[in-house]
Design goal:
Chain A: InterPro entries: AAA+_ATPase (IPR003593), ABC_transporter-like_ATP-bd (IPR003439), ABC_transporter-like_CS (IPR017871), ABC_transpr_LolD-like (IPR015854), MacB-like_ATP-bd (IPR017911), P-loop_NTPase (IPR027417). The structure holds two protein chains of two kinds. By secondary structure, chain A is of the alpha/beta class. Helices cover 31% and strands 27% of the residues of chain A. In chain A, the strands form two sheets. Chain A has a six-stranded mixed beta sheet with strand order 6-7-8-3-9-10, with helices on both faces. The chains are: A alpha/beta, B alpha+beta.
Chain lengths: 245, 593
């Protein structure tokens, strides 16, 4: 797959809520191709449908109409079971609220998707050790989420999202709950991932995040209103942690 | 007054928001207190009925039973009636021991030769039809019920067919089937009913050379001094056995002696299930309650007011459940304490002691299960309570490590157990309580049934039937409550774990795996709970078992335990399935807001 081949595609994607007079078009006729290895930032005001679009792309929600294709396979009509298996192998999620399992340590959180994929505990441990080292948290592996700072928690969440080497990483406001230093840490990680060829779709309000993207799409009222390939606009982020994929 | 109204309004609004939880609390506590009240009411209940019957029918203080109608008997009876301690007497009445056939059943019967006008002592109360007249027979009410005969039916007494002209109740005899006052060991003999006929109609019985005894009913100056009177008339020249009214109370009570331990032990098991259910509810609502406390604190409510709001709801529901349970016990008590209908039923409800006991139990269940979450909520700082960040989860690394080596559903189930090990323990204990009762039920049902009739299976054993009815009722109540608890626990677990399960689904867990995980969280403690219930059930029955007690085959008991596990699995499947189908995106979004 070359870099111009879309790994993730949306065709005339529609997602509505309610009916009658209270009908809301959260996502309204979105067409989108995300090439492999691209870092795509989705921006727009609150309630414009960014997060819904991300959920549709990752199979967490089903579209009311339209199609979603991942790696050449249509996914919007898959069963819940098949979607789960697809997410297991091909999609990694990072959320604004981190969504770590509170009673599991950092390492155990990273091990979880590997175990869910049916791999051995030894494999899961090895993978968690590698990933936590890559996000600079190997010394925090046994800490519970509440014992970590917001930035550290988000780095654990990124490590967890990468545990099964997904085709695409979908991030929903990943820096929304972070201070400046932690935001920079996360941006460095995303930069490292992008450099390693990882496809990223990042929903964000943060101009600093958008500034590091290869491409910026803007949404308003559920529609894509702007799509700019911004290779020349990408700003460097000082790399701290090397990503080995 | 304003403060009271405020508490009431806050409590009422919370009950309206969670009607299902209020209903569940009412159901579990009502059943438990009702059973406890019923069990508590049995002690002395028969005595109350007998005293009432004795008062209404002018029952004797002592019945002197002589084994024949010889001259020696006559001398004894003269001596007794001339004793200054005796204020009145009736009789002597001859009793013939024969057989009776009715409605296809054959039974031993005691035929009493009665006066058309009863004497000074013992006025049997006619409950239907008329008192004795020539050519008809009056059947003691309990015996008539057991035979299924009514006024107008024909029965055969000692080979003679006669119409039933009435049914009656008397305190001069013990309840059916103990009508034969002198048995082989001098006490009442099992499995005889009582009928009354005119003296004229009993004459053919005398000609048949049937066994006969002569009864004298005595009223004493001091009705409580029966023992002294009987002791004064012991000796080789006294040709009689004596049955005091106190003895009859004891004998009558034996008909329900198996019921009381079943009901009392059953009520404690039900109380435990109520505690488990209410505790699960309270813990499941703890997070919401904490946020509610934060809101109340934020608007200036004092800890005292907040504590009153949180506790008042459960205490009020507990008191309401107690009232419902006591009312149910009040209406079911007559059928339980008077299964033979040989005694007159009174309208007395549970005693004051029983009411206090059930109220204390209901309040204890409500307070013990809600006090912890209430105190935790009160101690939480306002900001922490509002953001619900007060509780830091426990890390159970060993269990997490072990679960990592297991299939995904078991992994998820074990990790859910690790979040709430106390709840898993309660679930195991609930299942143990249920299997204990089912085991006891099976043991009782495999015992050999001795019919009260002669080769007449339709004339059932009321005493055993009473025990069977009670254990079935207790088992049914336990199964229903355990089922409700399982549903509640699964749903509460699913609600509490919705975030974790949603995260697991974003990481690739299928809905089926999440459903199985939620079910596994209930089933993993259910299996040991069911297995432990078998020996404990046998141990519970053992103190009440006699020599020759038959035990059901082991495979019956293991099948019952297996059935319990399967039913639990089925009950968990529905709430687990509903929870697993909840939108992941919505769940995770809700966590942010």
């Amino acid at each position: 797959m070359n870099q111009f081949q879309a790994v993730l595609q949306a065709r005339d994607l529609l997602r509505t809520h309610g009916r009658g007079e209270s009908l809301v078009h959260a996502v309204d006729g979105v067409d989108l191709d995300v090439p492999a290895g691209q870092m795509l930032a989705v921006m727009g005001p609150s309630g414009c449908g960014k997060s819904t679009l991300l959920h549709l792309l990752g199979g967490l929600e089903r579209p009311s109409d339209g199609e979603v294709w991942l790696d050449g396979r249509r996914i919007d009509d898959l069963s819940e079971r098949a979607l789960a298996q697809l997410r297991r192998r091909s999609v990694g999620f990072v959320f604004q609220a981190f969504h770590l399992v509170e009673e599991l340590s950092a390492a155990e959180n990273v091990e979880l998707p590997v175990l869910l994929a049916g791999r051995s505990l030894r494999t899961a441990r090895r993978r968690a050790d590698e990933l936590l080292a890559q996000v600079g948290l190997d010394d925090r592996a046994r800490h519970l989420p509440w014992q970590l700072s917001g930035g550290q928690r988000q780095r654990v969440a990124i490590a967890r999202a990468m545990a099964n080497e997904p085709l695409v990483l979908l991030a929903d406001e990943p820096t929304g709950n972070l201070d400046t230093a932690a935001t920079l840490d996360v941006l460095r990680l995303f930069e490292d991932l992008r450099a390693a060829g990882q496809t990223l779709v990042i929903v964000t309000h943060d101009e600093r995040v958008a500034a590091t993207a290869d491409r910026l799409v803007s949404m308003r009222d559920g529609r894509l209103v702007d799509d700019t390939w911004m290779a020349d606009r990408r700003q460097p982020v000082d790399g701290v942690h090397g990503w080995e994929g | 007054m304003g403060r009271f109204l405020l508490v009431f309004r806050l409590v009422w609004s919370d009950v309206r928001r969670h009607p299902g939880q209020a209903a569940m609390l009412l159901l579990s506590l009502s059943v438990a207190t009702g059973m406890l009240a019923l069990g508590g009411s049995l002690g002395g209940a028969t005595e109350a009925l007998y005293r009432h019957t004795r008062a209404v029918t002018a029952g004797p203080d002592v019945v002197a039973v002589s084994p024949d109608n010889s001259a020696a008997t006559a001398r004894t009876q003269d001596a007794l009636t001339s004793d200054p301690a005796v204020t009145a007497h009736s009789g002597p009445y001859l009793q013939y021991y024969s057989k009776l056939k009715a409605k296809g059943s054959t039974s031993h019967v005691v035929v009493t030769a009665a006066d058309a006008e009863p004497g000074a002592v013992d006025h049997p109360l006619v409950t239907s039809g008329t008192w004795v007249r020539s050519g008809g027979v009056v059947v003691e009410r309990g015996f008539a019920n057991a035979l299924g005969v009514r006024v107008g039916d024909r029965i055969t007494v000692a080979g003679r067919s006669l119409p039933v002209i009435g049914t009656a109740v008397s305190a001069a005899t013990t309840v059916y089937p103990f009508a034969q006052l002198t048995g082989p060991d001098g006490g009442p003999s099992d499995y005889s009913g009582l009928v009354w006929m005119t003296k004229q109609d009993t004459k053919p019985l005398a000609a048949k050379h049937l066994s006969v005894s002569s009864l004298l009913y005595l009223k004493l100056r001091d009705p409580d001094a029966t023992q002294a009177f009987v002791s004064a008339h012991r000796g080789p020249t006294v040709y009689a056995n004596f049955q005091s009214w106190q003895f009859m109370i004891g004998q009558d009570a034996t008909i329900i002696e198996g019921s009381q331990p079943i009901l009392v032990i059953g009520s404690w098991l039900l109380s435990f299930l109520a505690i488990a259910g209410v505790a699960t509810l309270a813990a499941g609502r703890a997070a919401k309650q904490t946020r509610r406390v934060g809101l109340l604190k934020a608007v200036g409510a004092t800890p005292g007011l907040i504590g009153a709001v949180l506790l008042t709801e459960y205490v009020t529901l507990a008191l309401l459940a107690d009232a419902l349970g006591l009312t149910a016990a009040r209406f079911t008590q007559p059928a339980v304490v008077n299964p033979t209908a040989s005694l007159l039923t009174t309208t007395a409800g549970p005693s004051t002691g029983t009411i206090i006991l059930t109220t204390v139990v209901a309040l204890a269940v409500a307070i013990l299960t809600t006090l912890g979450p209430t105190m935790r909520a009160l101690r939480t700082e306002t900001v922490a309570a509002l953001s619900d960040t007060a509780r830091q989860p426990d890390h159970r690394s060993r269990l997490t490590r072990v679960s990592a080596m297991l299939p995904v559903p078991v992994l998820l189930g074990l990790r859910l157990i690790a979040r709430r090990p106390g709840r898993a323990f309660l679930q195991a204990c609930s299942i143990t309580a249920t299997v204990i009762t089912i085991t006891a039920l099976l043991i009782i049902f495999v015992q050999r049934q001795v019919s009260y009739g002669i080769d007449s299976p339709h004339l059932g054993n009321l005493k055993d039937a009473q025990s069977r009815h009670m254990i079935v009722v207790v088992a049914a109540a336990l199964v229903v409550l355990a089922g409700v608890n399982t549903l509640t626990t699964t749903w509460t677990t699913a609600l509490e774990a919705r975030h974790t399960m949603a995260v697991a689904r974003t990481l690739g867990a299928t809905p089926g795996q999440v459903t199985a995980g939620l079910s596994a969280a209930q089933l993993l403690p259910t299996v040991p709970g069911a297995l432990v219930g078998i020996p404990l059930g046998i141990a519970f029955v053992w103190p009440f078992s006699a020599a020759g007690t038959v035990y059901p085959p082991a495979w019956w008991l293991f099948s019952a335990a297996l059935a319990t596990v399967v039913i639990t699995a089925a009950l968990t499947a529905l709430p687990a399935r509903i929870a697993a189908r909840r939108s992941v995106a919505q769940t995770l979004s809700a966590e942010i807001t």
